[in-house]
Amino acid sequence: MPGLWTRTLGELTLSYVPDAGVAMIRERLYPSAAEDEWHEHRPHLTEAGHLSMGCGALLVEKGDTRLLIDAGHGRISGSEVEHFQHAFGHVRDLPGSLAALGVDPGELEMVAFTHFHGDHTGWARPDATDDPRSLFTRARWMVGAGELESVAAGTGPVLAGQDGRTVTVTDGTEIAEGIRAWSLPGHTPGHTAWVLDTGDGREVVAFGDALHSPVQVAHPEWEVILDTDRDEAERSRRRLIDQLARDGVYGFGVHFADQQLGTVDGSGRWRPWSDAADGR
């Protein structure tokens, strides 16, 4: 399971803010994957054969800009698991993780969401804290076009103060200098990656749930049970993988356990930062 870390790329400082670890039931998450396809991916599995994942957020700092991408899992119980999950660990860490970074969440002016699933909106939800403004009392919510419309009627607001605080952005919109939206729909209708310019000719793509695990990079054809439009999600995965295979392009996968930052190498496999930092 991932711990807090900070990396600097050019003018960009990135910090992973952990909130929870999750063990996923792999055959339920990826129902079309054959058992023999998992043999080469055993290092990503627990001793019990479950797929290790993390949940959290990415703190982005560049010049005078400071924002969070996604908002963790929030107020969950370690006993609350879906049919595709086995167990949670180190739950409710995000406020403490921000404190360890010296960040007051009440001072953040922007939270950008990849999508509206509960493990990404956690501490921004109306019930996240006793304060109805959520943990992020001042922030504007940056949301991809189509995501608000995907919320089922009658379910109430997903985000605290949703009507007055949400800014809807389209593909290519720059929400701050060097930070722009990239529409990658399929997992949800408005699923959005955030492309971060390092200022030195490189970029980092925070891609949310366009990919859930490093094993998926080698298998973009695998069906994902959580995708709302599976054909469109596969198209988005392939677009993303092609982009991550380009020189100077790195990816951040929030669910990628302890390999969140990396790139795609010449063999079409995920290459984590520990290897990728020196180039390809």
UniProtKB/TrEMBL annotation:
Keywords: Hydrolase, Metal-binding, Zinc. It holds the Pfam family Lactamase_B. Signal peptide: none annotated. Residues 54-254 form the Metallo-beta-lactamase domain. InterPro entries: MBL_superfamily_lactonases, Metallo-B-lactamas, RibonucZ/Hydroxyglut_hydro. It comes from the Bacteria. SMART domains: Lactamase_B. Belongs to the metallo-beta-lactamase superfamily. This is MBL fold metallo-hydrolase.
